[in-house]
Every structure is written in C-alpha cells, then in structure tokens.
Amino acid sequence: MDPYLVLKAIGFFLLVIIGIPGNMFIIIQFVLNKIIEKKLLPTNIILTMLATANFLVILSRIIFQFLNAIGLEDLLDESECKFMIFTYRVSRAMSIGITSLLSCHQCILIAPSTKVWCYLKQKVSQNVMTIIIILCVLLISMHSNTILITHARKNTTSSLYTLHLVYCDTDFVTYTSFIVNGTLYALRDFIFVKLMMLASIYIVYTLLQHERTVRGIRSSDRGQKTSTEYKASRAVILLVALYVILYGLDNSMWVYTLTLSNVSPNMNDIRVFLASSYASLSPILIIGTNPKLKHSWKYSDGKRNFPQNTSDNGLVVSISKSGSKHTIG
C-alpha cells in the first residue's frame, strides 16, 4: 500500500477513535445532568452543542476519509454526497461559531458589574439556546449552495475549479465563484477566531489582574486561589492556541489553493485533517478543564474518590472586588 495512504488511514482513524467517545461522553453527561437536575447551566448548554457539532463533523467527514484511505471506493451516491458535504460544512462552521460564543459568553460573565454588563449577562445567559439556533440558521443559509454544486465523483473530466472531496466533488464552475466562496468562508472563520481570541485575551488579562489583588492574602489562601486562576487561564490559552494553530494552518492552505487552477486531492486531505482535528481534540481539553466532566470521567474509570463540591465549569472564574472568587457555570 502507498505509504501516504497508510499515514492518511492512521491519522483519520486516530481522530475517529478519540473524537467519537470524547464528544459522546460530553453529550451524555450533560443530557443526564438535564434529566436528573432538571436544568442545565448556559455554559454547559454551549458545551453540549459544541460536542454535537464536533460529533457531526466526525460522522460526516472524518469517517469517510478513513474508509477511503483503506481502499473503499464509491460508497456515496449523488444525494448522499450532497447531504454529507452540506452536513460537514455546516457542522464545522457551527463548531467554530459555538466556540466563539463560549468565549464571548465567559468574557461577558467576568466583565465589571456595571448596568450595561449586568443587562448583557442576564440576556445572553437566558437566551443562549436562541443565539445558537439563530447562528445555525445563518450558517445553513450561507452553505445552501453546497447542495447545488456538490455531486458524486464522476469519471468524466471535471472543471478546473473543482474540489475533490473523497467520494464527492464540489464544482464551482467558474473562477469567480471559486474565489467568492473561498473568500467568504475564510472571512467567516477569521471573524469567529478573532472574536474568540479577543474574548480569551480579556479573560486572561482579568485573571492576571485579579492575581495581583490577592497578593496580600495569607499564603495558604493565596495558593488555592492562584491555582484555580492558573487552571482557568491555562484552559483559555490552550483553546485559543488550538484554534489558531489548526484553523490558521487550514485557512492558510485554503488561501493558497485560491491561486491554483486545479487543487490536488492530497492538498484537500491535509486541509480536511487540520480542519477536523479540532472536533476530535477539543473534547480532551473540555473534559480535562471541566471539573464535573473530569470527575465523571474518573468515576466511569472506577476512581470513585473525588471531592463532593465541584463546580460545573473550570474554564472561567468570576472575580469580585473583595478578591473572592466564584466559579461560573
């Protein structure tokens, strides 16, 4: 077998075996929370929808990339191709959009308690699901043309501006439509990443500022507070770094393909791997930084001795003027 196909199969297989259990665990845990506790905190609603979007990315694209790498051909017909590519593009866009929403939501929660910020905190927290639905409708509308330009792989010669996507082709027909679609998708991702980065930078800045205010507290208390702040800061930095690296590389390659008249399947494989990696890797970060998920994971592994008082969200810490700290879900 071609060494490239072996590496491709191993890479996508790892994404599948890591991503499916991780995202399913997050979804199941928070659904059980909703059933048992009759409520779900806004942050956990966002995390549940993020895991759902990531799970759809894996089902609609990564699995097919793996099947293609091990030699299975012609698995999808015309209608199945349209459904798969449409689902992949919408769910991938939802993944990055919801992550931006998560960062912005956390940013609003730790903002100063002024009249305007208090109003935003209340409205955003109360309407998280509505915001996600609106975002979903907008992204579905944005990608509706995918259904028209996607078709099953054909033996006939394709257009110069065709993306070869495993079992399917997306034919932009003209250079203008190729450029417009590429620019639009890159701009969308740039806006989402920019919002996420700005919100995350503000969160880290606020946590660092708070660390300075508690230096006068006795060392035993300060150590505990500093530890919590460090974990929250580390989680935000890791999320930002993961997005910047993966989506930065993906969009850099996408911009490069805009200069090409015919994009090779290998180039698309690399882009898909980079774009899809977040769907599989982010659950590891979410579980590792969310106390409730982390302790549930340990419990499922038979480690039943864990603290009784755990917060619902390990990513953000709200800070009061007095120097006290409360974890916000």
Can you characterise this structure?
This protein has 329 residues and is mainly alpha-helical. The chain has one domain (3-327): Rhodopsin 7-helix transmembrane proteins (Rhopdopsin 7-helix transmembrane proteins), CATH 1.20.1070. The protein is built from 10 helices and 5 strands; from the N terminus they run H-H-H-H-H-H-E-E-E-H-H-H-H-E-E. The strands form 2 sheets. Strands 1-3-2 form a 3-stranded antiparallel beta sheet. It has a two-stranded antiparallel ribbon with strand order 4-5. A hairpin with a 2-residue loop joins strand 2 and strand 3 (168-171). Helix 7 packs antiparallel against helix 8 and helix 9 crosses helix 10. It is globular. 35% of the residues are buried.
Alpha-carbon Rg, integer: 22 Å
CATH topology: Rhopdopsin 7-helix transmembrane proteins
What shape does the CA trace take? globular
Helix/strand order, N-terminal first: HHHHHHEEEHHHHEE
Name the CATH class: Mainly Alpha
Q: What's the total count of β strands?
A: 5
Strand fraction equals 5-15%
Q: Strand arrangement, largest sheet?
A: 1-3-2
Biggest sheet details: 3 strands, antiparallel
The CATH superfamily turns out to be: Rhodopsin 7-helix transmembrane proteins
Class based on secondary structure composition and strand pairing: mainly alpha
Q: List the total number of helices.
A: 10
Distance between the termini: 50 Å
pLDDT under 50 segments (min length 5)? 304-329
Q: How helix-rich are the residues, as a percent range?
A: over 70%
